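subagent[fold] <- orchestrator: predict structure for attached chain, return tokens only, no commentary.
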Amino acid sequence: MMAYSQGHICQCLTKISTSRLDFPVTLCGNRQKTGFEFVRSVQSLAQGLTVLGVRRGDVVAIVALNSDWYLEWLLAIAFIGGIAAPLNYRWSFQEARWAMELVGPVMLVVDDSCQSWWSILQLNQLPTLRTIIFLNDSPPDFKTAINVLNQDTIRKPLKEALSFDYISAPQGISLICFTSGTTGKPKGVAISHTALIVQSLAKIATVGFGEDDVYLHTAPLCHIGGISSAMAMLMVGGYHIFIPKFEAKAVLTSMELHKVTSLITVPAIMADFISVTRGQETWSGGESVKKILNGGGALSVELIEGAIYVFPKAKLFSAYGMTEACSSITFMTLWDPTIRNSTLFSSKSLCLDRDTAQKGGGICVGKPAPHVELLVRPNNHDVNNPAVGRILTRGSHLMIRYWDQIPAMTSDSKELRWLDTGDIGYIDSSGNLWLVGRAKDQIKTGGENVYPQEVEAVISQHPGVSGIVVVGVPHVRLTEMVAACVQIRDNWLWEDQNSNCCNEGKDQILSERTLKKFCRERNLSGFKIPKLFILWRKPFPVTTTGKVRRDEVKREIVSRFQVVSSNL
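subagent[fold] -> orchestrator:
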């Protein structure tokens, strides 16, 4: 049996089955469930899994679009001591197969989103896989030696009295989340029940989630951000609204129809909201929204302004985190409409230390969550910014381990270890954490260290720039040269450096010359200013979680410019 002192995500079921007995807890399409119905559905699944032979420590992989069923499966697997392994429905079969070979699932739960996998799966069966469960009707042409069932056939009738005898997997592992990885294969991150609980409590304390919230699932449940926020809402007993996957118009329609009060975003989602609602004088669907938590990258000032227009009554938060830390490490308030006497983007409303920002650069990501300990290990080799260093964190929010690694620590000693986030930054005099860049993205140019994110943060402030990726490319004299790939806004024009026409004074013209001047005006050090600017006319290559594939950008630049002049 489980050790209750370590916590279990299914502890939320007791509250839901009582305090939300006759109140709706989930809505997916035309399917609505009260708290009592939701809990019974979870437990009937758990009982069915036991009958099928799923045991404590077994891994069950899930690949599906967001739904109430998805959430029920995550809880049912945990209920019997299994370990859920959410797979990204956007993956190719080869990526999914690699992930399943890594974790060895005994069961695969699928819906119609991965129809392209089915024929391949019949020919490429995994040795550990015993059962495939279809959330929808199983296709008639699916032929395999593996046991194939529909989820309705495994749900077992329950006795009248609900039992809450849930158990934990070894090491208290709840699920395996996969990092997207900017290069190479993603890693399986083993997340504990305790980590999910303390992460949920941090979101509840910081953002203010409560049982009166109507929460719209905008993030996929295969990502740690979507899962941890869903768990927070389960803990407070809120109302979950599901849509299969993000599509801006559908989300906004659902938001207006169901009077949504809270959601999470990433910059791309917020940009889509602003784009769709721009010019709609009758738009009022954002009036009900009171809390928005943004993750997956910083919101620009322009996006913050747009968010305030679309969601005028919402308190806007931002979080910085990573899968290995079970989502959010730090939080900050970007905008609070209840502070009437503060000016827009003032230091009070943004919680920023402006003087420190000018001295050290980077992006402010706020203060650590209550359960999080942060440490910056100074980089003694950086004479320009001696306080800048690698960001470390420790606490009960950390992963147990990477799945393919032999456990090096017991649960008792886990609190003593520091996790290197791979990020570079510093902590200012007010306790705010500032991100300067990723250690692995560091560019070595003329003996100096340059972090692309710091340069991108400056250039992205230009009103004509809609997207920017900075990389280092080989250079005969400098070792690496700082190069910037720029996407420009629709109403701006790009002037080639070889053009003879003079456009000085015209606001809607961008060029390498004007962007270099802009960088100097923002006090960016000379060696950090890109020596090469490239107009990028297509979307940047990204991973399934939206992270830019800098390796692919770099390869394309190098292929375009096989020989880079040492005079640049």
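orchestrator: received. Logging for downstream: The radius of gyration is 25 Å. The chain has 16 helices and 28 strands.
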